[in-house]
Design goal:
242 residues; alpha/beta; Rossmann fold; 6-stranded mixed β-sheet; 4-stranded antiparallel β-sheet; 10 helices; 10 strands; 36% helix; globular; P-loop_NTPase; ATP-binding; amino-acid transport; ATP hydrolysis activity; AAA+_ATPase
Length: 242
């Protein structure tokens, strides 16, 4: 395991009267894919949003390359090289696909070679380049959401349930794109309910329940142990909030 690029130490986050994160400790190694798994309401989305500064940690440290970013505003965290693909996609429907992409490029004009790679893995984005993003199907909007995050090289990609509600063929396209990103040395923290997608992409796993990390280890260990999967992923059948 390489050195962690990101480390959360004792992170607590409250949303209104709810104590959602209750002492989260997790390390995200550089250049690898860490899966954040667990039942609905366990705190996975809250963890990503807290890292991004969209929700503020009440307590604890969030270290990016050793620098505590827990109190920084979201735009500063973005400029430090962190990109979030939100669960709701966050696409601007009235803007063209091109305009959505240009807005996402924080460091300057879009890189032509990187754009060619994006078009190769997500061909519909080239087809609809000049058209409003609202014309895209749900799967194509998810492609655009991922493309916006990866339009330039970032230190860390936070990706929240990219396969949710998508047809298997689209999920396969997303897996290929994320494998390409991983092969290029990207550091990714990925929330995903689709275990086959998690198994295909993940190097490491952190499993959440009730606002805490309850298991960490290698994806290969979890993938090879059905009893452990049942024990941990069976949590996904329970209810909850967050």
């Amino acid at each position: 395991m390489s050195e962690p690029l990101l480390r959360l130490e004792g992170v607590f986050t409250d949303i209104e009267q709810y104590h959602i994160l209750q002492g989260v400790d997790v390390a995200v190694p550089a250049g690898e894919v860490t899966m954040l798994l667990g039942r609905n309401g366990a705190g996975k989305t809250t963890t990503l949003r807290t890292i991004m500064g969209l929700w503020r940690a009440r307590q604890g440290r969030i270290l990016l390359d050793g620098r505590d970013i827990a109190a920084l505003p979201t735009p500063v965290i973005a400029r430090a090289g962190v990109a979030l693909v939100p669960e709701n996609m966050g696409v601007f429907s009235d803007l063209s696909v091109e305009e959505n992409m240009v807005l996402a490029a924080v460091s300057g004009p879009l890189d032509r070679a990187r754009l060619d790679w994006i078009f190769s893995v997500f061909p519909p984005l080239k087809t609809f380049w000049k058209l409003p993003a609202g014309n895209l199907s749900g799967g194509q909007k998810q492609m655009l959401s991922v493309a916006r995050a990866v339009c330039e090289e970032r230190k860390l990609y936070l990706i929240d349930e990219p396969s949710k509600g998508l047809a298997p063929a689209i999920v396969g396209t997303l897996v290929k794109a994320l494998k390409d990103l991983k092969a290029a040395g990207a550091t990714i923290l990925l929330v995903e309910q689709n275990f086959s997608m998690a198994r295909a992409l993940g190097d490491h796993v952190a499993v959440m329940d009730d606002g805490r990390i309850v298991w960490t280890g290698a994806m290969a260990t979890l993938a090879a142990d059905p009893a452990l999967q049942e024990k941990l992923m069976g949590l996904s059948m329970e209810g909850g909030h967050g």
